Amino acid sequence: MVQKLCLVTVGATAPFEKLIQAVLHESFIAELEKHDFTRLLIQYGKGGQPIFDAYRAEYENGKIVHDIQIGGFDLRPNMTSCLCMVREDPSIGQELGMMISHAGTGSILDALRAGLPLVIVPNPDLANNHQQELAEFLAEAGYAIVGKLDDIPSVVGQAAQRGDQAPLFRRDNGDRSIMTMSDELSWVD
């Protein structure tokens, strides 16, 4: 069976329970199934484990039924292994998946470097709405899709259509804004 993974990350510094609730909602999971996703892996970060555990309990008790494998974890020091699981690898029967991320620059740059279809969901509860600005900037530049908490299922089809057309970030592609973000985070090529 071909595997197709949707990786969701909320980051390490600020809780984002609303995104976890949105991706565990029945309508989002149904949309994943519609687009042949087989797995959902959620990095639920600070404060998200109770939401994830409550969902898993309902699923294990048979109150929720679907064919998507769902896993989760709090934090990992290095997300590279998760990003590799999203990449297409025909040798192991894996299709290109997608990443849904909070608007943290580290997570965004990781996804861009991996060439993944990327959906950025800004956290509206953070001060100054800086995540919305970053998400809109990257969407206008063609690097990502902006998702909204109240309509998260709609991004699945958009990301699936992008597929391998997701732009891969390289230092030699000339995008100064992305290079500046990369430099500020001390990324070395």
CA-based gyration radius: 16 Å
CATH class: Alpha Beta
Q: What do we call the CATH homologous superfamily?
A: Glycogen Phosphorylase B
Instruction: Give the CATH architecture.
Output: 3-Layer(aba) Sandwich
SSE order: EHHEHEHEHEHEHH
Shape type: globular
Helical proportion?
A: 25-40%
Biggest sheet, open or closed, and with what strands and sense?
6 strands, parallel
**Domains (count):** 1
Function: Involved in protein N-glycosylation. Essential for the second step of the dolichol-linked oligosaccharide pathway.
GO biological process, one term: dolichol-linked oligosaccharide biosynthetic process
Domain Glycosyl transferase family 28 C-terminal: 6-161
InterPro entries: Glyco_trans_28_C, UDP-GlcNAc_transferase
SSE topology:
Elements: E1 3-9, H1 17-23, H2 26-34, E2 39-43, H3 49-60, E3 69-73, H4 80-86, E4 94-101, H5 105-114, E5 118-120, H6 130-140, E6 145-146, H7 154-162, H8 176-184
Parallel strand pairs: 1-2, 1-4, 2-3, 4-5, 5-6
Keywords:
189 residues; alpha/beta; Rossmann fold; six-stranded parallel sheet; 6 strands; disordered C terminus; transferase
Task: Describe it.
- The chain has one domain: Rossmann fold (3-Layer(aba) Sandwich), CATH 3.40.50.2000.
- The chain contains eight helices and six strands.
- The chain has helices at residues 17-23, 26-34, 49-60, 80-86, 105-114, 130-140, 154-162, 176-184; strands spanning 3-9, 39-43, 69-73, 94-101, 118-120, 145-146.
- A six-stranded parallel sheet has the order 3-2-1-4-5-6, sandwiched between helices.
- Strand 2, helix 3 and strand 3 form a beta-alpha-beta unit.
- The radius of gyration is 16 Å and the shape is globular.
- The termini are far apart.
